[in-house]
From TrEMBL:
The keyword Hydrolase applies. PROSITE patterns: NUDIX (PS51462). This is NUDIX hydrolase. Pfam families: NUDIX. Its cofactor is Mg(2+). One of its GO terms (molecular function) is hydrolase activity. InterPro entries: NUDIX_hydrolase-like_dom_sf (IPR015797), NUDIX_hydrolase_dom (IPR000086). The keyword Hydrolase applies. The lineage of its organism: Bacteria, Bacillati, Bacillota, Bacilli, Bacillales. Keywords: Hydrolase. Residues 2-139 form the Nudix hydrolase domain.
Length: 154
């Protein structure tokens, strides 16, 4: 199976981060808005499209903050995604001023319940995937210098 590129948005506003809310047998969990890059599409084009589809937000895309690999066979969800090898490019984004209808967009993610703003100081209390990103976001907001490439993490 091929390696898949994915663009993700880290949208921070008033010390909160915008995430997609989902639910499984263990309760609620959260993921960053964004998704797979389509053939002929730049990462920025993919991210803008995904943010409209998933959280109804037009975004300005800033710097690349993190690159994460996810090799499914190496993590806790290997039973159903052992064939997955994805590279996620996580960009710092801002919602364009005047956007007030943040919520499910034109094509929500499978199983998406809605969009939610999580308080950054409390991120470690939420099941936000990748879970390793929670501390990275907290550290970024506090001004710490972080590596861009995070490796194969979940």
């Amino acid at each position: 199976m091929a390696v898949r590129n994915s663009a993700k948005a880290i949208i921070i506003q008033t010390n909160h981060i915008l995430v997609i809310k989902k639910q499984d047998t263990e309760g609620y969990y959260y993921i960053l808005p964004g998704g797979g890059q389509e053939h002929g599409e730049t990462l920025h084009e993919a991210l803008k499209r995904e943010c409209i589809e998933e959280v109804n937000a037009t975004v300005d895309i800033g710097n690349l903050l993190f690159i994460r690999e996810y090799i499914g066979k190496n993590h806790e969800h290997f039973a159903f995604d052992s064939e997955v090898h994805q590279i996620e490019y996580m960009f710092l984004c801002k919602v364009i001023e005047g956007a007030t209808n943040i919520g499910n967009g034109t094509a929500p993610d499978d199983g998406q319940i809605g969009a939610e703003w999580l308080p950054i100081p409390d991120l470690l209390n939420y099941r936000l995937y990748p879970q390793s990103i929670r501390q990275n976001v907290i550290d970024h907001v506090s001004g710490k210098e972080l590596p861009v490439y995070l490796g194969d993490i979940n």
